[in-house]
Amino acid sequence: MAGAGGGGCPAGGNDFQWCFSQVKGAIDEDVAEADIISTVEFNYSGDLLATGDKGGRVVIFQREQENKGRTHSRGEYNVYSTFQSHEPEFDYLKSLEIEEKINKIRWLPQQNAAHFLLSTNDKTIKLWKISERDKRAEGYNLKDEDGRLRDPFRITALRVPILKPMDLMVEASPRRIFANAHTYHINSISVNSDHETYLSADDLRINLWHLEITDRSFNIVDIKPANMEELTEVITAAEFHPHQCNVLVYSSSKGTIRLCDMRSSALCDRHAKFFEEPEDPSSRSFFSEIISSISDVKFSHSGRYMMTRDYLSVKVWDLNMEGRPVETHQVHEYLRSKLCSLYENDCIFDKFECCWNGSDSAIMTGSYNNFFRMFDRNTRRDVTLEASRENSKPRACLKPRKVCTGGKRKKDEISVDSLDFNKKILHTAWHPMESIIAVAATNNLYIFQDKIN
Amino acid sequence: MSAEVPEAASAEEQKEMEDKVTSLEKAEEAKLKARYPHLGQKPGGSDFLRKRLQKGQKYFDSGNYNMAKAKMKNKQLPAAAPDKTEVTGDHIPTPQDLPQRKPSLVVSKLAG
Fold it and tell me: Which of A145, A159, A192, A270 is the most buried (most CB within 10 A)?
């Protein structure tokens, strides 16, 4: 697989080889629901990797500084901080259970020594500050070393407390809680390039927040019909443009994307651009709309393109062309002949995410059986890889996998009927600059790196 | 490594592929309709969408609960059988019937 990572295609056309680096999480077969990873996100430098799970917990990994002596091994990711972000709630008024599952984590660009991230469940967004403490003050006048208060009348001399080094402690504290702005379930959050505002989107509305203000948010998109019987589509994902602070996109359950410009009006119900691929009406089936529902939309780093993921494919769109995507990549076309059973077991509603590599030359998305797919946009080549414990020897190269659809199954191929649909890779992330990827396989987090370097 | 789509498929090949795709889907649709004949015939909006918007709905009515409690006075309210996950019918749900959602007290295994 060529062309991944910083800088464009290498002149020699070296194929990148993805190798196992690390795996996090329990090995046992019995997976507790709370341990299922629900979101994975690198920060802007790629030094921090955050995961959120169904139990409302966030675990942040930090990349170790590279060992100068071992130039061929890259820094490993180790636990940096972990905290309970959200807790389960019950809304007695509406008889609604509010899950603590973390739907999305988005990092803020770093502005000082501390790190900030936004994490959200279905209803509430929280801004967390993660800071390091490696010094402690000693020699207080009014209290002992163990914290007990001293009797002020027994103090005969004053001293100036001094700062002494201590073991590094990483603390996470909730700095803002943005609540009560969403009637429906939040599916996306996205930080604006102005670094001051962010959006949150639910099934029918998108709100704009200021990071400093928690008691107010502006509604910028509202697609709720006056009569709910007329509801035909919902918002599935939304994102701000990486450079243009006035531009956002949102995708729908009908496979369309709308680009909105906040300069044109306060309420962006009317889109500036409407992206939809034309469909032959005679080819419509019961499944057409369901499988066209977009589960994720991501701008390229360049801001020129955006990528959408629907049930069977990934499409790259040029923002200057609304009529059709510029690229369509089949993720697992062999599932088209299984749509009936996938509907019955609800898998057809699985929401896969997708991501770009740092140079926008490659894209990645997950599939079933713990498979994930990568597409090189320059060479037009694609590969299917597997995240499994069997391929977990240090620096072991991943072998490409193949699914066979016909009768004759070759030696290393796996037939469609043998695929494990409970092993879904919904969340993947690509390091912003290097060839390092994080893949969430249910309750395990795999980290793969390329062999070169 | 395999290329999923041939680089330059002729127009004919394209049409053939599209037809195949369509017929696969329609075959699957026929299978589904055979198993669930009433699917897709309900009027008024999409069932999927409504179901999706109502995710998380449980049925605890504090009014019913308190009225039932007042009527029963000293008697115990009939509790749902322990293995029942859904509470339906004449039975009035009690707070105990709602599956208790406690926050995870255990640290994530990813951090272990």
Answer: A192
